[in-house]
C-alpha cells in the first residue's frame, strides 16, 4: 500500500459489525437437514450416499480438513471411503485409483484433497474424475455448466459463500459485488454465482490497480486473496456485506500461530454483516461437500442428467 493510501484512510470506530454471520451454526443446521434427506434416500432407494476422500502426502492442514470431512460424512449418515497415499505417489498411481473409484457403484462422490505434491499434475487428476462424481465441482464439465447456468456440481466454498450471503440478502438483482481473488476454486466460481443472481460483478486480483477504491463501491465483498488483514475498514461501504474466505496462519506474540482472514473484522462496525474467521466460510465448505455428495448420489441413483442444486430439507 502506498503512503497516500494510508493518509487517505478514514478513522473508523473499532466496533463489531451489526451482524457476524455464524458459519458454524449455519453449517450444523445444513448437516442436520442433509442427514434427514440421506435417511429418506436410504429408506426409499436402499442406497447410502458414499464419498471417497483421497489424501496424498502429509500436509498437516490437509490432514485436519480430511478428518473433518470424514467425521461430517458420518454425522450425515453417509459412507466414506478414505484413501491415504504416500507423499511419493506417482500421477499414474493416483490416476489408477481415480479410475477404480469412477467405476465403483458404492462411490457417488470423489474428492482429491488439494494441494497435491509437486510430481502430480493436479489438473490431470481433476480432469480424470467422472463429472457426475466430481463433488468439488472442479472438473471442466462442471465448470462449464456453472458458467452457462445449466446445473451440475458447484465448488463447495463458493456455494458456502452464497448460503452465507443468503442469510442476510434477499434481493441480489443490481447489487454491486466485488470479488478479491481470481482462483479457480473460489474467485471465478463465486463471481459466476453472483452474476447468476444478476449482481454487477467485478473480479479483482494481484494486478488490479486502486483496489481499495473499487472495493469502496461494493454492496457485497468476497475477499479470497489469501492475504492476511488485506481489507481494512475504510475500504468497506457502510451497510455492505463482507464474506471473508481467507484462512491465513500468522504468528502469535507467544510464539504460536493463529488463523486470521483477509479482512480486519474489528474495523467493520459500519458493515451490515461480516463472516468471521474462523467459524465463517470454512465450516460451510465442508457442509456443502455433503450437500454435493447427496446431489451426486441422487442424480446417479435416478440416472438423471446433472440437476440444479437441490435445497436440503
Ligand atoms: N479438494 C479440495 N481441496 C481444498 C479445498 C476444497 O474445497 N476442495 N479447500 C481448501 C481446504 N478446505 C477444504 O478442503 C478447508 C479449509 C478450511 C476449513 C475450515 O473449516 N477452516 C476453519 C479455520 C481453520 C482451522 O480451524 O484449521 C474455519 O474457517 O473456521 C475447511 C475446509 C483447500 N483445499
List the helices and strands and how they pair.
Layout: H1 3-8, E1 19-20, H2 23-45, E2 50-56, H3 60-75, E3 79-85, H4 91-103, E4 109-112, H5 122-128, H6 140-148, H7 156-166, E5 176-180, H8 187-196, E6 200-204, H9 211-216, E7 220-223, E8 241-244, E9 248-251, E10 257-260, E11 273-274, H10 281-302
Parallel strand pairs: 1-11, 2-3, 2-4, 5-6, 5-7, 7-8, 8-11
Antiparallel strand pairs: 9-10
Helix pairs in contact: 2-10, 3-10, 7-8, 7-10
This protein binds ligand LMY7XDAE.
Q: Can you offer a commentary on this structure?
A:
GO terms for molecular function: methenyltetrahydrofolate cyclohydrolase activity; methylenetetrahydrofolate dehydrogenase (NADP+) activity. Belongs to the tetrahydrofolate dehydrogenase/cyclohydrolase family. Homodimer. It comes from Sphingomonas rustica. Helix content is 39%, strand content 15%. It has helices spanning 3-8, 23-45, 60-75, 91-103, 122-128, 140-148, 156-166, 187-196, 211-216, 281-302; strands at residues 19-20, 50-56, 79-85, 109-112, 176-180, 200-204, 220-223, 241-244, 248-251, 257-260, 273-274. Strand 9 (248-251) and strand 10 (257-260) form a beta hairpin. Helix 3 (60-75) crosses helix 10 (281-302). It binds the ligand Nc1nc2c(c(=O)[nH]1)N[C@@H](CN(C=O)c1ccc(C(=O)N[C@@H](CCC(=O)O)C(=O)O)cc1)CN2. The ligand Nc1nc2c(c(=O)[nH]1)N[C@@H](CN(C=O)c1ccc(C(=O)N[C@@H](CCC(=O)O)C(=O)O)cc1)CN2 is lined by residues 64-65, 111-114, 136, 156-157, 247, 259, 277-283, 285-286.
Amino acid at each position: 500500500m502506498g503512503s497516500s493510501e494510508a493518509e487517505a484512510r478514514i478513522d473508523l470506530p473499532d466496533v463489531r459489525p451489526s451482524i457476524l454471520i455464524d458459519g458454524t451454526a449455519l453449517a450444523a443446521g445444513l448437516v442436520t437437514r442433509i442427514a434427514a434427506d440421506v435417511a429418506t434416500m436410504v429408506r426409499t432407494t436402499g442406497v447410502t450416499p458414499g464419498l471417497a476422500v483421497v489424501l496424498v502426502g502429509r500436509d498437516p492442514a490437509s490432514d485436519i480438513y480430511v478428518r473433518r470431512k470424514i467425521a461430517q460424512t458420518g454425522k450425515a449418515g453417509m459412507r466414506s471411503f478414505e484413501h491415504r497415499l504416500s507423499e511419493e505417489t506417482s500421477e499414474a498411481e493416483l490416476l489408477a485409483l481415480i479410475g477404480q473409484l469412477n467405476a465403483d457403484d458404492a462411490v457417488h462422490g470423489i474428492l482429491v484433497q488439494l494441494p497435491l505434491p509437486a510430481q502430480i499434475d493436479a489438473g490431470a487428476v481433476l480432469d480424470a474424475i467422472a463429472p457426475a462424481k466430481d463433488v468439488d465441482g472442479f472438473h471442466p464439465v462442471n465448470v462449464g455448466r456453472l458458467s452457462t447456468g445449466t446445473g451440475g456440481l458447484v465448488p463447495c466454498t463458493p456455494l458456502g459463500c452464497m448460503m452465507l450471503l443468503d442469510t442476510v440478502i434477499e434481493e441480489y438483482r443490481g447489487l454491486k459485488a466485488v470479488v478479491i481473488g481470481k482462483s479457480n476454486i473460489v474467485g471465478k466460481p463465486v463471481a459466476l454465482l453472483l452474476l447468476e443472481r444478476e449482481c454487477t460483478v467485478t473480479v479483482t486480483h494481484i494486478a488490479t490497480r486502486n483496489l481499495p477504491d473499487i472495493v469502496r463501491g461494493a454492496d457485497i465483498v468476497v475477499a479470497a486473496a489469501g492475504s492476511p488483514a488485506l481489507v481494512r475498514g475504510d475500504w468497506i461501504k457502510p451497510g455492505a456485506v463482507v464474506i471473508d474466505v481467507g484462512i491465513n496462519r500468522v504468528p502469535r506474540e507467544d510464539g504460536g500461530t493463529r488463523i486470521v482472514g483477509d479482512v480486519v473484522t474489528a474495523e467493520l462496525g459500519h458493515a451490515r454483516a461480516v463472516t468471521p474467521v474462523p467459524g465463517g466460510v470454512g465450516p460451510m465448505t465442508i457442509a456443502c461437500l455433503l450437500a454435493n455428495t447427496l446431489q451426486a448420489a441422487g442424480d446417479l441413483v435416478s440416472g438423471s442428467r446433472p440437476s440444479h442444486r437441490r435445497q436440503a430439507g
